[in-house]
Specification:
single chain, Rossmann fold, four-stranded parallel β-sheet, 9 helices, globular
């Protein structure tokens, strides 16, 4: 089973190979062959957290999705919690496409009654409040708690990131009534284990959803089950038909 992770933003080639190796180490399964593709063009805007950046990401995601399907890849995951272009990709390719944002929120509804999103900045908080409303999950959303660190700085300030995540998680549970937490940036994934330990140490027994883990495993489940998105909900477009012929 071959799954390709589609980066929404440019990743230099050496870093891309390192990322692929890191993902295989952290999320690899015997039946899962993971690969990564990133946009070939330089970024159109500097800040990733903007509607403009998310919009510019879509054409390159489409290009990489079409290439993946032509290569025989079995399923696709977009590496961005905002799920840019998910519906477009589903009209473009026939293989299953999942975004970590909606997948994580839907899994959270299976595990508890109210979930909170641990987000990066004010933009993310506003974006995901609206995303939860559009996907009709807002009734289950307890809060968006932000750490006020842009995605590109999460690793550079790892100590501060972990402390801010811990404080946000505790507030979400104790003040907002959340019983399930989502790391609402794929850049938070390396902090998942340590954050879980910090919450356990405080006696807070809540599921902590790593979006990469749940999305890749959900994708594997769909592939194993022979399922993909509905052709009625997401009818093929001219570009997908032309590419297949």
């Amino acid at each position: 089973m071959q799954v390709r992770v589609l980066e929404a933003f440019v990743v230099p080639e050496p870093e891309l190979q390192a990322l692929a190796g890191e993902l295989r180490t952290r999320y690899g399964r015997d039946d899962l062959d993971l690969s990564v593709a990133a946009p070939a063009r330089p970024p159109e805007v500097e800040a990733h957290e903007s509607m403009t950046a998310l919009s510019y990401a879509v054409p390159e995601l489409v290009r990489n999705a079409l290439e993946a399907e032509a290569e025989g890849i079995d399923g696709l995951m977009v590496d961005c919690m905002a799920d840019p272009g998910i519906e477009v990709l589903r009209e473009t390719v026939s293989i299953p496409v999942l975004g970590p944002g909606i997948t994580s929120m839907q899994v959270a509804t299976l595990l508890g009654r109210r979930f909170s999103l641990l987000v990066t900045t004010d933009f993310s908080s506003r974006y995901f409040h609206e995303y939860a409303r559009r996907t009709r999950l807002n009734a289950r959303l307890a809060s968006c708690r932000q750490v006020d660190i842009p995605p590109e700085q999460l690793q550079a300030e790892s100590g501060h990131t972990l402390q801010a995540l811990t404080e946000a998680a505790v507030q979400a549970v104790e003040s907002d009534g959340a019983d399930t937490l989502i790391l609402c940036c794929t850049g938070f994934a390396p902090f998942s284990a340590r954050l879980g330990e910090a919450l356990d140490a405080r006696g807070l027994s809540v599921p902590l959803i790593d979006p990469f883990a749940v999305t890749l495993n959900a994708l594997a489940m769909l592939i194993h089950s022979g399922l993909s998105h509905s052709g009625i909900a997401f009818p093929a477009t001219a570009i997908s038909a032309q590419h297949r012929h």
